[in-house]
Design goal:
The chain is mainly α and about 375 residues long. The protein has helices at about 5-35, 40-65, 75-80, 90-110, 110-115, 120-135, 140-145, 145-165, 165-185, 205-235, 240-255, 270-275, 285-300, 305-310, 315-325, 325-335, 345-355, 365-384, and strands at about 70, 265.
Length: about 375
């Protein structure tokens, strides 16, 4: 058997590092935001990492395409701003199961997939931008609370970003962990490197399923799965979407009872594995997907230590999470106002979502999508 190309190996390792380091803090904030204890959060991060690693290994090997799998960073941002659900973390697990089931249904039933594709892009972007805005304010708040440390993280993110945008967030992540280490003279937590898996049986709350489960499904599909397919297509790969959606939904379903919120196709790191960075031989770039999958498993097995270490300075971790989401927020905001005829409805969706206001126990993203959809429907009916 021929050895994997060196370029594909390096691209896969880079994708795993960028994918984990860039959004680890966002996922941690999201799980804690819906009621996870530190032990449950570490279990969730490990479950997600192992699930997306195994899924990436499987699909890359079976399809011989560089298909990169990731956790849902926008979905984690949704959780971070949703607040503690009625029923606590067990109710959030129920919402994760619902979202996974809907992804599986999308892959198996073509009309459901077509209905998903029919959601206006401007509303999907507006809901995502509204979810991300409060989180993107965290670096500013961190500078106010810890001026030297906050400014140092922002400066490193900005400086590295002028040189290489892909490495900006990982560089800031390394700086954040180094500053936490210096502030606390080492980890000092005694936490195990490999966390214990914590099984949480789901409970079912209508408000949580509507307010978290449904938006999590929509955000994951619109912001991860569909763009992930587009990145593969741009680089000359055209896998059948249905089986990919079904498989990522199944891995999401398996990881949910252990705290995993969603596994999906990668978007940003997909470009690393499928692009020229993975070597000139397009037929052998699938090794990059294999290597990135193995890398995610390795990172996930160290989630216990990483989670305990990050818990020592929540302010800096929130700042890091905010910086990691700036690019996604900018893209979502641009998509919100791109269509002139839908701009009013999209802006209303953005405003309602960003308000963070819950009604009847249902979180703001659902109401933002509902308000935006009604206004868009009324506007189009008037024009017709």
């Amino acid at each position: 058997m021929r050895l994997p190309p060196l370029a594909a190996v390096s691209a896969g390792l880079l994708a795993a590092f960028v994918g984990f380091a860039s959004s680890f803090t966002v996922v941690l904030q999201g799980l804690v935001g819906v009621g996870a204890t530190p032990e449950q959060a570490a279990s969730g991060i490990m479950a997600l990492s192992v699930a997306m690693g195994l899924c990436g290994l499987l699909v890359s090997w079976r399809t011989k395409m560089p298909i990169s799998i990731a956790w849902s960073t926008p979905g984690a941002a949704l959780l971070a701003g949703a607040g503690l659900p009625e029923g606590g973390f067990a109710a959030a697990i129920g919402a994760f199961v619902l979202a996974a089931g809907l992804v599986i249904l999308t892959g198996l039933v073509k009309p459901v997939g077509r209905a998903m594709a029919a959601i206006p892009v401007s509303l999907a972007n507006a809901m995502l931008a509204g979810i991300l805005l409060p989180l993107c304010l965290a670096p500013v708040k961190a500078v106010a609370v810890l001026p030297l440390e906050g400014l140092a993280i922002v400066a490193i993110w900005f400086a590295v970003g002028r040189w290489n945008r892909i490495l900006a967030v990982p560089a800031a992540a390394v700086a954040t962990f180094l500053l936490i280490y210096l502030r606390h003279s080492g980890p000092g937590t005694g936490a195990a490197i490999v966390p214990d898996p914590v099984l949480v049986l789901p409970t079912w709350s209508l408000s949580t399923m509507v307010g978290i489960g449904l938006p999590l499904f929509l955000i994951t599909m619109a912001s991860q799965n569909i763009p992930g397919l587009a990145v593969l297509k741009v680089n000359g790969y055209a896998p059948a979407p249905g089986p990919l959606f079904t498989l990522t939904g199944l891995f999401s379903l398996f990881s949910a009872p252990f705290g995993g919120h969603a596994v999906n196709l990668a978007a940003i790191t997909a470009a690393i594995c499928a692009g020229d960075e993975a070597g000139p031989d397009r037929a052998r770039r699938w090794w990059a997907g294999m290597v990135s999958g193995a890398g995610y498993i390795a990172f996930g097995l160290a989630a216990g230590w990483a989670t305990a270490f990050a818990a020592q300075s929540p302010v800096l971790i929130q700042a890091m999470a905010g910086l990691a989401l700036i690019g996604a927020f900018a893209g979502a905001l641009a998509g919100t106002v791109a269509e002139v005829q839908d701009r009013e409805a999209a802006v209303l969706c953005f405003v309602v979502t960003a308000s963070g206001t819950a009604f009847f126990g249902i979180s703001a993203p659902f109401w933002g999508l509902a308000v935006g959809g009604l206004v868009m429907l009324a506007t189009r009916l008037r024009r017709s």
